[in-house]
Every structure is written in structure tokens, then in C-alpha cells.
Backbone:
């Protein structure tokens, strides 16, 4: 819980400072490949709109984020309850949950996403980095663990309470 709160506070603090003092600032580094380029993204609000071209409105995106946040919190709670929460899963879920909270915060406060980090042609924020890091960590963790499919089924049943 402390990790989630810390990540959310860091994201919100950085965005508040940028919004109040640096919205008209543009700093570029390494031949314009990296930089600080603040903008409030109100058009491409999510992966659904950016990559899939679905043109989902902000209200639906908030509902989707809230549903995903609830599912992630449920998963984290169940893993703790059945004794399967380890450090890797704690960090992965904390990054996903913090990213989801920050996404909802962005949409409610800014009416979009306050993005400010230029990385090549992609403008992102800490929330995006949290989500990307969680995904990369999860994939790496799942590839590295050694488990059998029968054990995986038992874990899934335990998570959803079907092991009784």
C-alpha cells in the first residue's frame, strides 16, 4: 500500500508542478529525441484510442479504468489472503494499481492526460512508465518462473475461491 501511495503522490506532485509552472516550457535533449514537452492530451486519451482507433469517450474510459482498478485490487487482496503474494507480484500489482489511479486522476482533473516526457516520438508521463514497467516486469517474471500448468490451475482456483 505504501508503494502505491508513494507512486501516486510522486506522479501527482510532478504533474502539479508542471501544470503550475512549466506548461509553456519545451526542453529538448540529444537531437530532439528526449525532452520535457508538456501537453494535455484530450484526443488520444488511452490505448483504445491511440492504438486501436476506437474513439472511446472520457466517461467510458473512466469506467474502464475504475473496473480495472477494482479487478487489480481484488487480485492483490486475494493473493495476500491465500498466501501467494511475493515481492515480485507486490511490485507488479502496485505499479499497475498506481498507474490506474493516476489515469483516473488525470481524466478527472485535467480532462485528459497531462503528458510531459518526450522519448523519441512518444510523449508520456510517469503513469505510462509505471504501466510499461509493470507489464515488462510481469512478462519477465512469468517467463522466468518454473511452474506446471496443473499448479497454475490450482492457483487460479484459489484466487477466485473455487478451491474449497
Residues:
Amino acid at each position: 500500500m505504501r508503494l502505491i501511495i508513494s507512486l501516486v503522490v510522486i506522479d501527482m506532485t510532478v504533474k502539479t508542478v508542471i501544470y503550475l509552472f512549466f506548461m509553456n516550457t519545451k526542453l529538448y535533449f540529444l537531437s530532439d529525441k528526449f525532452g520535457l514537452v508538456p501537453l494535455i492530451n484530450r484526443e488520444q486519451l488511452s490505448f483504445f484510442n491511440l492504438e486501436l482507433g476506437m474513439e472511446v469517450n472520457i466517461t467510458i474510459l473512466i469506467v474502464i479504468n475504475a473496473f480495472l482498478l477494482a479487478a487489480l485490487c481484488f487480485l492483490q487482496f486475494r493473493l495476500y489472503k491465500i498466501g501467494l503474494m511475493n515481492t515480485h507480484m507486490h511490485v507488479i500489482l502496485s505499479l499497475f494499481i498506481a498507474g490506474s489511479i493516476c489515469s483516473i486522476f488525470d481524466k478527472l482533473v485535467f480532462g485528459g492526460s497531462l503528458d510531459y516526457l518526450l522519448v523519441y516520438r512518444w510523449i508520456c508521463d510517469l503513469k505510462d512508465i509505471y504501466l510499461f514497467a509493470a507489464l515488462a516486469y510481469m512478462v519477465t517474471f512469468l517467463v522466468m518462473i518454473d511452474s506446471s500448468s496443473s499448479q497454475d490451475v490450482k492457483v487460479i482456483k484459489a484466487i477466485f475461491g473455487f478451491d474449497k
